[in-house]
Amino acid sequence: MGSEFDLLVVGDANPDVVLSGAPRGLAYGQREHLVSSGALVLGGSGAITACGAARLGLRTAFAGLVGDDAAGRFVLEELISRGVDVSRCTIGPEPTAMTVVLADGPDRAILTAPGCLPYLGAGDVPRGLARHVHVSSYFLQPRLAAGLPELFADVKRAGATTSLDTNDDPAGQWPDLTEVLRVTDVFLPNAAEARALSRTGGSLEEAAALLGKTGTLVVVKDGERGALAWDGGDVVRQGPIPVQAVDAVGAGDSFNAGFVAARLRGLPLAECLRVAVRCGGLSTRAAGGTAAQPAWEEL
User: Fold this and answer.
1) Is 0.90 topped by the overall pTM?
2) Which end of the chain is more exposed for a tag (fewer CB within 10 A), N or C?
3) What is the rounded CA–CA span in Å between residue 230 and residue 237?
4) φ/ψ of residue 186, rounded to 5
5) 104-112: which pairs have CB atoms within 8 A and are 24 or more residues apart?
6) Assigned domain for 17 exists
7) Where residue 90 sits, what CATH number does that domain have?
8) Confidence of residue 1 (pLDDT cuts 50, 70, 90)
9) Domain enclosing residue 112, as ranges
10) End-to-end Cα distance, the chain
């Protein structure tokens, strides 16, 4: 299929203020806490995935909403500087989303003001643009989520493939995703999300099998244990790589970019998983989600 782009990423983009060495318990009463470091970086699962894919050589476009403000201009400039096409981005009716990440080693707390994110709908997404469409942060974008089954069905009818990373559900409700997973080629949760969505506290294989009943390929990110893929009953595992991690912000999004890039190259599942784990691991070498994303040659 001839397409202008290899990949269209649909989802969230915002500035991240990453504070490393944050205390676990914050004292209010105007107390000031000192942390080891801070950085202003490009954030948002969708934006980080798009940058990782472009770094790996994919012709990548991003479709999302930003505000008419300094934060929105920062986001668009950062995406453009990393080779991502933003001509399909829209200026939304509210300010750009903003996130503060409190990082403590590999763990983190995330505070997000959603801004214009809830206003993005499936009708804002161009059709027929790319070989593959990836959607991120499902629960932060309720209008997009409501129209996603129809959007993905359109994408697949046009001969392209689809993937989804829901990310965390801030409401903690974890609704049933059967309808959208039926038209999702690759589902990319982390271990906690897979267990929550499958309603099981058992093994990751069990969680992946329950989610995979819809026919989707389930690829589960398992942090320091690597990753697992469940494909119609076949299970593939990949261990982690040794890396001197600075922080893990965006590692899962870089993993997504690696998996999609490898799959679009036609590599077998085990190799796609290996590439994805390496992309996620190598991205932790610097603060923020995009500074240390690898090029294909590094893999």
Assistant:
1) yes
2) N
3) 9
4) -135, 125
5) 104/20, 104/21, 104/22, 104/24, 106/223, 106/224, 106/245, 106/247, 106/248, 108/247, 108/248, 108/249, 109/22, 110/168, 112/14, 112/140, 112/170
6) yes
7) 3.40.1190.20
8) very low
9) 5-23+37-292
10) 27
